[in-house]
Amino acid sequence: MDDFFIYLGLGFDHITDPSGYDHVLFVTALCAVYTLQQWRQVLILVTAFTIGHSITLALATLQLITYKTEVIELLIPITILITAITNFFFQEPGYRSLPVSRQTNRPWRYGLALVFGLIHGMGFSNYLRSLLGREADIVKPLLAFNIGLEIGQLVIVGFILTLAYLALNLLRTSRLRWTLILSGFVAGMAASLIINNEYLGELMK
């Protein structure tokens, strides 16, 4: 059981690690258009991302699929940039009488989160496989690591939605301005990661 909590902690630390902020940026981009009142929609969105990355995390860790690590490291910031760019088309709801859940109904975002989750899962597996080494039983560490990822992911979501609440209700910032500022920051960071990617540099030669 001790090993379970060790890998759970490693999963949590991996997704919340400030030095490896690419996954944090992606979750931030996913949540940028939502408010604390829309936590149910965010939960569905995060669940879609979870399903996606859980599938490829398991398949890649069990070595049932193979891929080039450098390609995944390039695709991850691309998914972040695309998600942030979609937020630029956000339109602040004009009908305040509508329920909040109906003001920003974007079913296609769930599919986007699922597909991009598949890519991020392969990125998670790189780290997990380096931890496992020649471990005989990898099912329990895989489960624990994935749960740790989800706990860390929920912490990030809670933090972003709390910031949104403070910005919208205390600072009286408009939703449009909040979305554009946050998404612009994420897009800039993602673009920097893409530009500085070594594999892309090799392709451009």
Describe what you observe in this structure.
The chain is 76% helix and 0% strand. The chain contains nine helices and no strands. The protein has helices at 2-16, 22-31, 39-61, 69-87, 100-103, 108-132, 139-170, 175-195, 198-204. The longest helix is centred in the last third of the chain and has 32 residues, at 139-170. The chain is mostly helical and 205 residues long. The chain has one domain (2-15, 23-84, 97-204). The model is unreliable at 95-103 (pLDDT under 50). The chain crosses the membrane at residues 20-36, 43-65, 71-90, 110-131, 151-171, 178-195.
**What is the count of distinct domains?**
1
- Rg over alpha carbons: 18 Å
Number of strands: 0
**Spatial gap, N to C terminus:** 50 Å
Main beta-sheet strand count, sense and barrel state: none
The ordered string of helix (H) and strand (E) elements is HHHHHHHHH
What's the average pLDDT? Answer: 89
How many DSSP H or I helices? 9
Percent helix, as a range, is over 70%
How big a fraction of the residues is strand?
under 5%
